[in-house]
Amino acid sequence: MTDPIAALTARMEALEKRAQAAEDYRDLVNLQGAYGYFVDKGLWDKAAELFAREGTLEIAGRGVYVGRERVREYLHRLPPYGYGVIYNHMQLQPVLHIDSEKGTAKGRWRTLMMVGALGKEGRWGEATYENRYIREDGKWRIASLHGIVNFYTEYDEGWHRGGVPLLRSVDGAQPDRPQSFEYEAYPEPVIAPFHYDEV
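== Nuclear transport factor 2 family protein ==
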């Protein structure tokens, strides 16, 4: 006959692991969502603080920026938020794989973008994020953010007329490493590498 105390202890340990996994999922969704909201409003310092100390950022084939301060430097080179500016980056469709015991996780997201400046340009965009996360000093942080742009199009022309070529550099902020792989956005086909084979 099974020891009821041992059985109860095992059940409590299993429930604790499930509770921790649920909390980690919530925290990671909030972390990625916070990144999107901060980027929306050009709050570059707040966005940078979501990265691990040695975290990396790679967006649109512009190379890899290594370390929180380099991420901050890159972000501060982006257009400032203000009158007549839209820079929405909605974080959608998460697929998360979390190792709560190790304090690591991987996530795939989709971002839908509305980018524009009054009287200048207006664009729709969409990208896939393949990210890694780490628990650092008791909090989840972005260990690697990799945004693979699927398309940018002029809002008034739509995607049926083609896309806007990717901007391959940011003035004044040279990357620390080259981009992970060569690609061009729509109308060229691109599939962001998956961190998983099945769910």
